[in-house]
């Protein structure tokens, strides 16, 4: 997660600005390219998830995929940030669209098996929270380092040269850290080949699981709202707050609580239910995004508090959500006798990435329709209102709706303990449901 966080940060918050203001691709066009890449990523996730569930490779059903993905992830990262200088017009658009599709494909081949492997490492209700909490701390450290890459590209006299240098270093780092993870991570041999035989049955089981169904809807609603903030944060800082030199400072303010408060969420996870903590996260985010709608140059100091609040809510959710996902997958094994971490991870990713892709397309088209002018010193009031609505009101409404839906989640610690006890008995006796 160090390597993925380092290059994931520029991808999330700078790629659209880089494409519209440096490569001079129209916002609506690049938003459409981004949407297509995300939708393809969402489609490829279920395929990778199902195949890794069924894999019986000697290196492990997850680690074999990670080994294979290491170099391609690094290469496609470089391709994404360093289009040939001689390209312009439609040639440049085709290159960026192809690079997005290839990057999304190779990252899927790593992230889906990697995410599934994390959910297999422990079946302890609280140990999972600790595991995903520390993973989040490491990812946040990588993301904060990635802010340096964003700063370098944003302030460089030759932004394309800076992007090439960052992508060469970052792509190499991603390949090296993925390879290291695939070499060092343990994998449960007793889960090998225990996925569903038929891909249709695999995803039908995910949809039949009532706890999974609810999470799918919640993820879709949340991501549809929140995806715009990463894309539009640099625009907001430059044209609403009028403090472009503080771009990385604002984002750092978001990541500091995610890094610093993770041990607290791990401890609170033993005292309060995971459901309560995730609801708290959604409420914090809904309040924070509502306040973000009122961002302006006059109150930019107050915005540090708002961004910090968003970091508190985002960090809590990032620690608790995957722990809940792992519990839901245990429920599936209880019902079906199969281990389908890959299918579950993939379908959750499908919903989140599909929603994010849709938001990216809408965001780009909305910016273009409102009259956004690349590299202008200021923007019209229509553009500013559009920015505020996309990064403030849209995610706030979605998080309120998501919290209402998630309040119905019913899988608790007591029920999960009973499920794990039964699963352990089955593994000892070899008696699995048919």
Structure characterization notes:
The chain is mostly helical and 434 residues long. Helices cover 80% and strands 0% of the residues. It is built from 16 helices and no strands. The longest helix has 37 residues, at 300-336.
Gyration radius from CA atoms, angstroms: 21 Å
Question: How many helical elements?
Answer: 16
Structural class: mainly alpha
The major beta sheet can be summarized as:
none
C-alpha end-to-end distance: 38 Å
Percent of residues in helices: over 70%
Secondary-structure element pattern, one letter each? HHHHHHHHHHHHHHHH
What is the general shape?
A: globular
* Assembly level: single chain
Strand content: under 5%
Question: Are there runs of 5+ residues with pLDDT below 50, and where?
Answer: none
* Average pLDDT level: 87
How many distinct beta strands? Answer: 0
Can you summarize this structure?
With 434 residues, the chain is mainly α.
Could you give the topology of this structure?
Blueprint (H helix, E strand, L loop, with lengths): L1 H12 L1 H8 L4 H28 L8 H19 L7 H32 L4 H31 L3 H26 L14 H10 L1 H30 L7 H14 L1 H10 L2 H19 L7 H37 L4 H30 L10 H26 L6 H17 L5
Considering the chains and any ligands shown, give keywords for the structure.
434 residues; mainly alpha; 80% helix; 0% strand; globular
């Amino acid at each position: 997660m160090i390597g993925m966080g380092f290059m994931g940060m520029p991808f999330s918050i700078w790629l659209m600005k880089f494409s519209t203001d440096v490569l001079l691709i129209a916002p609506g066009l690049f938003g459409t390219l981004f949407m297509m890449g995300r939708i393809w990523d969402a489609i490829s996730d279920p395929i990778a998830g199902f195949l890794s569930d069924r894999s019986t490779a000697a290196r492990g059903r997850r680690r074999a995929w990670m080994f294979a993905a290491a170099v391609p992830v690094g290469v496609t990262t470089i391709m994404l940030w360093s289009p040939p200088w001689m390209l312009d017009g439609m040639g440049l658009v085709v290159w960026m669209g192809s690079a997005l599709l290839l990057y999304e494909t190779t990252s899927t081949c790593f992230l889906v098996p990697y995410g599934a492997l994390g959910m297999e490492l422990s079946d302890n209700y609280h140990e999972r929270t600790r595991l995903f909490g520390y993973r989040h701390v490491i990812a946040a450290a990588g993301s904060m380092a990635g802010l340096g890459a964003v700063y370098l590209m944003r302030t460089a006299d030759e932004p394309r040269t800076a992007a090439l240098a960052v992508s060469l270093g970052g792509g190499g780092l991603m390949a090296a850290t993925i390879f290291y993870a695939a070499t060092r991570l343990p994998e449960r041999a007793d889960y090998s080949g225990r996925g569903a035989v038929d891909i249709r049955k695999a995803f039908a089981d995910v949809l039949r699981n009532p706890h999974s169904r609810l999470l799918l809807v919640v993820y879709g609603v949340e991501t549809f709202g929140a995806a715009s903030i990463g894309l539009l944060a640099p625009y907001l800082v430059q044209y609403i707050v009028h403090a472009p030199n503080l771009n990385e400072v604002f984002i750092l303010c978001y990541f500091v609580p995610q890094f610093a408060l993770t041990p607290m969420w791990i401890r609170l996870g033993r005292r309060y239910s995971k459901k309560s903590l995730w609801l708290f996260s959604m409420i914090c985010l809904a309040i924070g995004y509502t306040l973000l709608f009122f961002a302006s140059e006059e109150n930019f100091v107050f915005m540090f508090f708002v961004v910090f609040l968003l970091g508190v809510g985002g960090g809590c959710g990032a620690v608790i959500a995957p722990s809940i996902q792992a519990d839901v997958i245990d429920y599936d094994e209880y019902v079906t006798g199969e281990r389908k971490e890959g299918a579950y991870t993939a379908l959750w990713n499908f919903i989140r990435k599909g929603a994010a892709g849709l938001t990216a397309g809408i965001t780009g088209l909305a910016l273009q329709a409102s009259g956004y002018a690349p590299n202008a010193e200021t923007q019209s009031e229509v553009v500013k209102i559009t920015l505020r609505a996309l990064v403030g009101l849209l995610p706030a409404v979605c998080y309120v709706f998501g919290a209402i839906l998630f309040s119905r989640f019913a899988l608790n610690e007591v029920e999960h303990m009973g499920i794990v006890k039964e699963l352990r008995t089955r593994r000892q006796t070899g008696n699995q449901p048919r």
